[in-house]
Design brief:
The protein has six helices and six strands, in the order ααααββααββββ. The protein has about 160 residues and is of the alpha+beta class. It has a domain of about 90 residues: Winged helix-like DNA-binding domain superfamily/Winged helix DNA-binding domain (Arc Repressor Mutant, subunit A, Orthogonal Bundle), CATH 1.10.10. Strands 1-2 form a two-stranded antiparallel sheet. Helix 2 packs across helix 3.
């Protein structure tokens, strides 16, 4: 499904992505699943989300294909939640939010990511040419008729 149909304004994949995971609880659910916490009780404990809100977001994320629900007990019926490929692909997004939060939102980072024996530090490298990506080398090309970088293109 092309979520751009549901998003007002500029046709943009950022807006479409935010339509799926653009609230606090959605990304905190993904964080917990990345940490290996798959049960509702673990997720509610670690996010402090209201139970009804958490249940609604879990349903939304299942419907969007970001997570899947797996039964782990028959009676009473109980489920765990696991990331799909789509959900696992959000890991770098959360790593970027973590880095931004460490730098601008907290006085002292409460957690660090370790890579082997050192703190993980990410940088952008183009997967096509292998060069390090610099902001000044990147430009946008609109693929939607009637839009350019500045916004809607005047007709006529």
């Amino acid at each position: 499904m092309d979520r751009l149909e549901n998003v007002p304004g500029r046709p943009c994949s950022v807006a479409a992505a935010l339509d799926v995971v653009g609230d606090k609880w959605a990304l905190l659910i993904v964080r917990e699943l990345l940490f290996g916490n798959h049960r509702f009780t673990e997720i509610v404990r670690n996010t402090a989300a209201p139970r009804d809100r958490l249940a609604a977001r879990l349903r939304d994320l299942v419907d969007a294909g970001v997570i899947e629900k797996r039964r782990y007990q028959e009676s009473p019926e109980r489920f765990e939640y696991h990331l799909t490929a789509s959900g696992r692909a959000l890991a770098p997004v959360l790593q970027s939010l973590l880095a931004w939060g460490d730098r601008f939102a907290v006085d002292e980072p409460p957690m660090t990511l370790q890579h082997h024996d050192h703190e993980l530090r990410l940088r952008s490298v183009c997967a096509v040419c292998g060069e390090r990506v610099h902001r000044e080398d990147v430009h946008r090309v609109s693929r939607r008729a009637g839009w350019d970088e500045a916004g809607p293109v005047p007709v006529g």
